[in-house]
Amino acid sequence: MDAPDPQHRVTVVVATRNRREELVAHLGRHEGPVIVVDNASTDGTVEAVHAAHPRVRVVPLPRNVGAVARTVGVRLARTPYVAFADDDSWWAPGALVRAAAVFDAHPRLGLLAGSIAVGPEERPDPLNAVLAASPLGIPTGCPGPALLGFVGCGAIVRRSAFLEAGGFDDVVRFPGEEERLALDLFDAGWRLSYVPEIRAHHHPSPRRETDDRRQRELVRSRLLTALMRRPWRVVAHELRCALRAGRTGRRGLLGALPRVPAALRARRRVSPTTEAALALLHAPADPPPNDPTPNAPTPTEDSP
């Protein structure tokens, strides 16, 4: 791969698995250096990218590691900032240049969440309004509303902050992997902000998991994240929510069981400051005393 142009200060990392057509069709839309990390695709993805986009760096992994593939890409990046994209998404022209300028102007900004336009109709993703209305306000050092959640394909990170926070882990994997990273960034004093003028486009692939599977995997991810970072009362709350969710919740709990030992080994509760921010973030839900709802906004993307 050629050395990156010094004018390009944001690398795009694309994690993919078995979506050869979408990936090849959209790779040419990315500006600046691109690293594709392939999660052990069986559809000829690696060969197709080499043939259609020979200047793109492709990293084939021997097995599907989920969102950890993004961490692999960030480690390989040679720019100070990294934008995430899925095989069915891309950043608007000029967005990455603007993002680099925002990071430069805000040295404690660890993650920038852009707005997302969905489909050929360019519909605003419903999450845009949720992020814009964050009750955390715009603290000093933030270019926009402060956040404790984001969507992977709509996020750009400061590489050093991302790696300091451990990147995406191999406990939660995907989906719902963003919550633990957001907690750790915030807990370390990094800012996370919504900057809507920096836009990503997402044309959801027809090759998507079923809603039922996604919901049970989100149950699993919320429980594992709580085990790693939240008070035991929140873990108990997640268990109760899962049990009330019927078959989907029970299957999510069963899916979490093999990863519980790893989650407990990685357990490190976030600070009271972060817990207070979470309480403020979820205050509109009016949870019962000492039983706060821990969940970040449910992401709408379809990633690795």
Structural features, described:
It is globular and about 50 Å long. The chain has helices spanning 20-27, 45-52, 68-76, 95-105, 126-132, 159-164, 178-187, 211-229, 232-244, 246-256, 260-265, 272-281, and strands at residues 10-16, 34-38, 57-60, 81-85, 89-91, 109-118, 123-124, 155-158, 191-202. Mean pLDDT is 90; it is low at 285-303. It contains 12 helices and 9 strands. It has 304 residues and is of the alpha/beta class. Helix content is 39%, strand content 17%. Strands 1, 2, 3, 4, 5, 6, 7, 8 and 9 form a 9-stranded mixed β-sheet that branches. It has 2 domains: 10-202, Alpha-Beta Complex (Spore Coat Polysaccharide Biosynthesis Protein SpsA, Chain A), CATH 3.90.550; 211-270, no CATH class.
Q: What can be said about this structure in brief?
A:
With 304 residues, the protein is α/β, with parallel strands linked by helices.
**CATH domain class name of the largest domain:** Alpha Beta
Based on helices, strands and strand pairing, what is the structural class?
alpha/beta
Strand and helix order: EHEHEHEEHEEHEHHEHHHHH
CATH architecture of the largest domain: Alpha-Beta Complex
Mean pLDDT: 90
